[in-house]
Write a structure and sequence with these properties.
Elements (H helix, E strand, L loop, with lengths): L1 H8 L10 E6 L4 E6 L6 H4 L7 H6 L7 H16 L5 H32 L4 H7 L1 H22 L8 E2 L2 E2 L5 H26 L13 E4 L10 E4 L4 E2 L4 H4 E4 L8 E4 L8 H8 L5 H10 L11 H25 L19 E9 L2 E9 L5 E7 L1 H19 L5 H14 L4 H4 L2
Antiparallel strand pairs: 1-2, 3-4, 5-6, 6-7, 8-9, 10-11, 11-12
Length: 425
């Protein structure tokens, strides 16, 4: 029966981003995450290109989180060129990132995860069985799409954000329209948290090391130091010195380790490190929904994402108000860059992508061309931890039937919200 189960599980895992196979040998209690995507060579693709190609090209790594790649690349290039953007440009970027996180979390939670918990097999069946919840999800999706479209120029692979600012900024009327739609849908975001708080999650408290941006004064998404669960912090520029990456012969994704240990990055990590900086409604929901033990349970990454949707709504509300009341929107436009006397430089850009910490590093020569580029994505950091926790899950629930264990393992994989196309960038 075990051999039969291994053969059943030695197949592509459905309802995740990309193509991956989790191979499990129950006799040996081993699990291997085989990422079945071809290496895409984005880092090599842009060597020799001018600096402004970095955000344009690297955003094509992913159609689900292009904003995060765009912003990380922009921050890296700006640091290398020693450009300081205007505050309005930064606020517009932060608003873009809020829209990105809302949209990605919503897609993952409603269409990929929820079917596991409510006994349906697809989003189509979900829409038929839960029409009110489906309508709720569509309303939230329209809102986050409108943010990205108005600020970024289009929903997928937005084009207006560039090193130094924006090529075009929204009008005050467009920003005000976002405020109205936000007011109409924020209660539905709260309802989404309540929906996921009602679900029954497997008991499983295993996460030890975690890593994300952290800041004492804000819920760190766009900026911050790199924080660890034990309270240690280091500069994002030192990430490559703290993380070891390993290539394995059965997977096209790299495996990342922190001081020779696997670790987790993502929404649950951000709650562990930054829950005190959540916006008021999100913090209240967090206090109602989470216990200390659940903060170490990867299944609760789903609920953490739902709470982050509410936080990003509240953060977007603040940003919109600031842009209307305190900003000259035109100051967010990119300014001419002369580059006089430039002799080359290195820059690092870190942001929190929906799935966790995203790192871009660029080296530019004196001609403003890219000499070297490195990207570390959230999923390439999580995949080693995913293997370990799958093995621990099998051991914890060893007395359950093969079919029950199969379902639990697949639910765990989806809780990590892996983006395998990003992992093989």
């Amino acid at each position: 029966m075990a051999d039969q189960f291994v053969q059943q599980l030695n197949q592509y895992v459905t309802r995740i981003e990309g193509h991956g196979v989790l191979k499990i040998d129950f006799d040996q209690n081993t699990a291997h995450m085989q990422v079945d995507e071809g290496e895409r060579m984005f880092e090599a693709m842009i060597v020799g290109q001018k600096f402004d190609k970095a955000p344009w090209v690297t955003s094509r790594i992913c159609g689900v989180c292009p904003v995060a790649h765009t912003l990380a690349a922009i921050k890296a290039v700006e640091e290398a060129l020693r450009i300081k953007p205007e505050l309005t440009a930064v606020r517009l970027r932060e608003l873009l990132l809020c829209g990105q996180i809302i949209g990605s979390h919503l897609l993952h939670l409603f269409f990929l995860v929820l079917p596991d918990y409510v006994g349906v097999s697809s989003a189509v069946e979900l829409a038929e069985k839960f029409p009110a919840e489906f309508h709720l999800a569509l309303n939230i999706k329209r809102f986050c799409d409108k943010i990205i479209s108005i600020v970024g120029g289009r929903v997928v692979h937005p084009v207006r954000a560039v090193p130094g600012g924006f090529t075009m900024v929204p009008t005050e009327e467009e920003i005000r329209s976002l405020s109205l739609q936000l007011e109409d849908t924020i209660d539905e975001a709260v309802n989404l948290v309540e929906l996921f708080a009602e679900q029954e999650y497997p008991e499983f408290s295993v996460l030890e090391d975690m890593l994300s941006l952290a800041d004492d004064n804000s819920y760190a998404l766009y900026r911050g130091m790199v924080g660890l669960l034990n309270g240690d912090r280091f500069d994002p520029r030192d990430l490559e010195n703290n993380i070891q990456e390993e290539v394995r012969n059965y997977s096209s994704a790299k495996f990342s380790f922190l001081k020779n240990k696997t670790y987790f990055t993502g929404a649950l990590t951000r709650l562990n490190l930054s829950s005190g900086q959540l916006a008021p409604r999100a913090k209240n929901l967090y206090n109602q929904c989470f216990s200390e033990e659940q903060l170490n349970n990867p299944f609760y990454n789903n609920l953490a994402q739902a709470i982050e949707i509410v936080h990003c709504y509240e953060e977007a509300e603040k940003l919109i108000e600031w842009l209307i009341e305190e900003s000259d929107l035109q100051s967010g436009l990119v300014r001419p860059f002369s580059g006089t006397g430039y002799s080359g430089g290195r820059g690092v850009g870190c942001v929190e992508a929906p799935r966790g910490l995203l790192y871009h590093r660029v080296n530019l020569n004196e001609n403003f061309l890219i000499d070297e580029y490195n990207i570390i994505t959230p999923t390439s950091q999580n995949v080693a931890n995913l293997e370990v926790t799958c093995q621990q899950l099998i051991e914890k629930y060893r007395d359950k039937s093969d079919e029950e264990k199969k379902k639990l393992v697949q639910m765990l994989i989806r809780a990590y919200d892996p983006c395998l196309t990003c992992s093989v960038h």
